[in-house]
């Protein structure tokens, strides 16, 4: 199964008063991960939109293991657990680069829908093949 | 079991390019909900901190039912599902006020820890009673 | 000249690793202020959009006086300094409610434009009158 | 005078309901710019903090020229306009990489202060030399 690895730096903007990354901001990193694994497979989210298709998150889960902190470099490892008829389950590991420790793990389920009707739409064979399934 | 109800308005700041509230921002509303149910019970998060105790989220889950949109008034309904030795499980319903439809539901597990050692600490009887358990 | 006063609570989501509100988040409060002074005058930003008009910020300035902190209640005081042919200059004061101290002051210039052409469009007499000018 | 150039991708997280980058988020890019120009000169903000020094923004200005959009790659060009006794004025240009158009320009004034007393502190000769002044 395909994996995407993307690195990011933690800035003040990502942190909170507790001195660590604010818990909601890990979901922004999940977005980066799934966008980049699709791009790596040759698919740009703008292309989907031009075809009238969007892929909103219908479910998210995250377990926080250790706090990521200001100035850390973190690695987002994204894999695809499952491709259904019209949905994809993405798994994410957020790793602190300096010591390779996992700081958070989670998943999202994204459903491909027609932008106008908001009805689910079948994932194309092209995308399915490109994602290695 | 105690319930807290807090209303908020959706601004541009909360939304994304898809025309709806960005999925990570629901977690900000979960934070509002658990802060306000604690305040309603007489506990201010600043007081915990002065006692050297913080309550980070160790787990979050959210199911997205319908999109909340710009200018909507949303209602955050927070309840407490369970109080363990050192953790609380909060449940959240995000409701669109105009038609009372559920837009999202989720939970967080928060663990009370000593701010210095980051070891878990027992929830006090005062807090337990105030939360109705 | 009309004034709008809106109160908000500071949550973890608004703060950063320095223990204070992150400097970009004051601009979210400016958005709240200008949206609410328009609403108070009977104008809802959704109505403008339905007429094909949006009012993006073309310029912002903010001076930071004192840090707003977690759990503070802050007051956003918004006034209108000037209404041009197609632009409005809004002034904002962010005040800490507990001691009435100014924590930040700033302004934005918003230009009314046609959403399709992005050309500037004249402010209607209705809006001009409602804003007291 | 030294210049730092840093590239970033625009994600959904950065955008708003208007289909463009939310105006407050440009200030996050300004933070990236000034952090990276300091890092390039050999100074890590974590090092300042260990010495008890922080450098909060006391003033920000931004002019918005054209909207940055979802999936754009933007270039942050940061220069230092002036180094005072205890403050630095940073200039920023945000450029859309695809056509080299300026999307926004602005500046911040950052004051170096002692973290405990919040009194301003002299910028060291080391930092002044490294920043090329």
Describe the structure.
The structure is a homotetramer of 133-residue chains. Chain A has 133 residues and is an alpha+beta fold. Chain A has a single domain (3-130), classed as Thiol Ester Dehydrase, Chain A. Chain A is built from three helices and seven strands. Chain A has helices at residues 25-40, 45-50, 125-130, and strands at residues 3-9, 53-54, 57-64, 73-83, 87-96, 101-111, 113-114. In chain A, strands 1-4-5-6-3 form a five-stranded antiparallel sheet, covered by helices on one side. In chain A, strands 2-7 form a two-stranded antiparallel sheet. The relative contact order of chain A is 0.24. Chains in contact: A-B, A-C, A-D, B-C, B-D, C-D. Chain A binds chain B through residues 18, 20, 23-25, 27-28, 31, 54, 56-64, 67, and chain B through 18, 20, 23-25, 27-28, 31, 54, 56-64, 67. Strand 3 of chain C pairs antiparallel with strand 3 (57-64) of chain D.
Which sequence of strands runs across the widest sheet of chain A? Answer: 1-4-5-6-3
Oligomer: homotetramer
Rg calculated over all Cα atoms of chain A: 16 Å
Name the CATH superfamily assignment of chain A: Hotdog Thioesterase
Largest sheet of chain A: 5 strands, antiparallel
N-to-C CA distance of chain A: 8 Å
What is the beta-strand fraction of chain A? 35-45%
| CATH architecture grouping of chain A | Roll
Specify the number of helices of chain A. 3
Element string of chain A (H = helix, E = strand): EHHEEEEEEH
Tally of DSSP β-strands of chain A = 7
Give the overall pLDDT of chain A as a whole number. Answer: 95
Shape of chain A: elongated
Q: CATH class of chain A, please?
A: Alpha Beta
Task: Determine the fraction of residues in helical runs of chain A and give it as a percent range.
Answer: 10-25%
Biggest interface and its residues per chain? A-B, 19 and 19 residues
> What is the CATH topology of chain A?
Thiol Ester Dehydrase, Chain A
